[in-house]
Design goal:
By secondary structure, this protein is an alpha/beta fold. It is built from eleven helices and twelve strands. Helix 2 packs parallel to helix 3. The longest helix has 18 residues.
């Protein structure tokens, strides 16, 4: 039984590795970032060396954490580590890393779309976050969590569940968070950090984006838009805007929000957030993208006036049918594996 138990296998591999590198998906989020920091701390408690390397920069508010300085931005070198741990990466390409072919790889993920590419794959779609999975690993390894590591894991779970508002919230998530608080995690500090540290520039951008709000006559689809000029004027980065859809999704009756973000001339990343039975992943896959049930996206190419008119109409028709063709590729999109919701 132990030979087929991924947690046991991961435990054995970590114990036998002296130099370990951790990475996460492109455009990292709170779950992958905080879990990376927690795993590094756990590995170091065992006397091994850990390094964190991500392809993309750390977004707000996580870029304000003092500990973020230990996260290197760039490429993992082709040699120098005994083990590479990939968090929330459905495949190696999702990490953006080019030199992992010769490494022993462990994949830890809570998304069903993972293709089990690593030497050890621990995929648990029932988990609320990889932070929850890392806690279970710590329990199995007999690691006594420090308050700082407990804080990281608590932050990972709160971030990925939207402060326990999203559909991945579960009884086990609450149970794990209870144990993390007992281990020293500070819920008030985490909530303050995640939701009450916006800059004045971010709030100004929020106002500009929300002023573009459109709602279809049926009242179930909302669209908002952000242009490059908005970011440039406020000296912000696109990676710092991922949470803006939350307010639009809170509108009564709205099942799905389409957030059009200009990436280049006539090129928009469309971030989808949904609630209830509206399947964001199915919509994204129809347009050549991908993601999760309530958080997904795709890239669309064309004139903005055409896209903002045609895409919501097509989405409304698809939601009415409730039978969406899987992975219908369109000429105006890029492959799903390059998308991060």
């Amino acid at each position: 039984m132990k030979r087929n138990d991924p947690i046991f296998l991961i435990r054995q591999k970590i114990l036998s590795s002296r130099r370990i590198v951790i990475t996460s998906h492109l455009r990292p989020d709170g779950d992958s970032l905080c879990t990376s920091l927690a795993l590094a701390g756990m590995i170091e408690l065992m006397g091994n060396r850990a390094r964190i390397v991500n392809h993309d920069p750390t977004p707000l508010p996580f870029s304000q954490m003092p500990e973020v300085k230990r996260i290197a931005i760039g490429q993992i070198p082709p040699c120098g580590f005994d083990l590479a741990i990939l968090l929330e990466c459905a495949n190696v390409d999702r990490s953006g890393m080019k030199n992992l072919d010769r490494y022993f790889k462990i994949s830890i993920d809570h998304h069903y779309s993972n293709n089990s590419y690593a030497d050890i794959n621990w995929i648990d779609p029932a988990a609320s976050a990889v932070g929850e999975m890392a806690f279970l690993l710590a329990e199995r390894m007999g690691i006594a969590l420090t308050p700082k590591i407990a804080d990281y894991l608590y932050c990972a779970i709160v971030s990925d569940t939207g402060c326990f508002q999203f559909s991945n919230t579960s009884a086990r998530a609450f149970e794990v968070c209870h144990k993390l608080v007992q281990a020293g995690a500070n819920p008030i500090k985490t909530t303050e950090f995640l939701f009450n540290t916006n800059s004045p520039e971010k709030i100004r951008l929020l106002g500009q984006v929300l002023s573009s709000l459109r709602i279809n006559p049926r009242g179930n689809i909302a669209t908002i838009t952000m242009f490059n000029k908005n970011l440039r004027a406020l000296h912000l980065r696109e990676i710092d805007t991922e949470d803006i859809t939350t307010l639009a999704r809170s509108i009564k009756g709205v099942e799905m929000v389409l957030f059009f973000k200009e990436m280049a001339r006539n090129t928009f990343r469309v971030s989808i957030r949904s609630k209830g039975k509206a399947n964001a992943a199915a919509i994204a896959e129809f347009f050549g993208g991908g993601g999760h049930v309530h958080a997904a996206g795709f890239t669309a190419v064309g004139r903005y006036a055409d896209l903002i008119r045609d895409i919501p109409r097509e989405v409304e028709a698809l939601l009415r049918k409730k039978a969406i063709p899987p992975r219908k590729r369109r000429a105006s999109t890029v492959p799903a594996e390059r998308w991060t919701a």
